[in-house]
Amino acid sequence: MTGTNPNYIEHHLEHLQLNLNNFNIGNGGFWTINLDTFFVGLVTALLIGGVLRYVAVRMQPEVPGRLQNCVEIMVDFVQRSVHETYHGKSLLISPLALTLFLWIFLMNALDLLPVDLIPALMNTVGVKHFKIVPTADPNMTFAMSISVFCLIIFYNFTVKGWRLGKEILTSPFGPYLFPLNILFRLIEEFVKPFSLALRLFGNMFAGELIFVLIAMLPWWSQWLPGSIWAIFHILIITIQAFIFMMLTIAYLSMAHDTH
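RESULT FIELD:
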């Protein structure tokens, strides 16, 4: 399929789907899983885990290699970010923040591949639709944000205990306006997963769409706008991974703090 095809954009926005009711490929509906998002997300997660495991097993304190230096720099950067923002004592937060940052960054970085490369390769084995960027799928971004939201609820209950009820009923307007306090608290909590998911999805979907639009230009005119947008997009994919990580740390820190 070429950029001159009128269905070019629609083709690049469709997922490889599996209907869980009848296990048919390509059928939509509620009980449908986007196989491309699932497999690419799984492969990138395994790749990150494998690389970090490789570095940990072969760590050399005296003469570290380039890969070990890169990993140590990222670990130190994430630990400093957690130390500056997170006020609790959980040992889960630093590994979680590192995992989120690396995983989201790698999934975002797949957007820098030529838009027709992976679909063309998959088409050779009979797969008509395959989206390579998992974070341009709201199912992926909401899955991550809901997981963070579950941790927020868990820490709210386990750390604050009975103080959580007092906090919900009395903050910010005092005990006599407790219905408003409850309403504001519900809005505050439920906005968090939406803000995490939609911010990441919106930026990555827009970036992917711009690459598709550039690919529709004549081949000889794609290089300049494509190169400029790719350089700018490197900043976007990094910032979005960083924002998701920092908001996660901040939300979990708020779950430990009392007003």
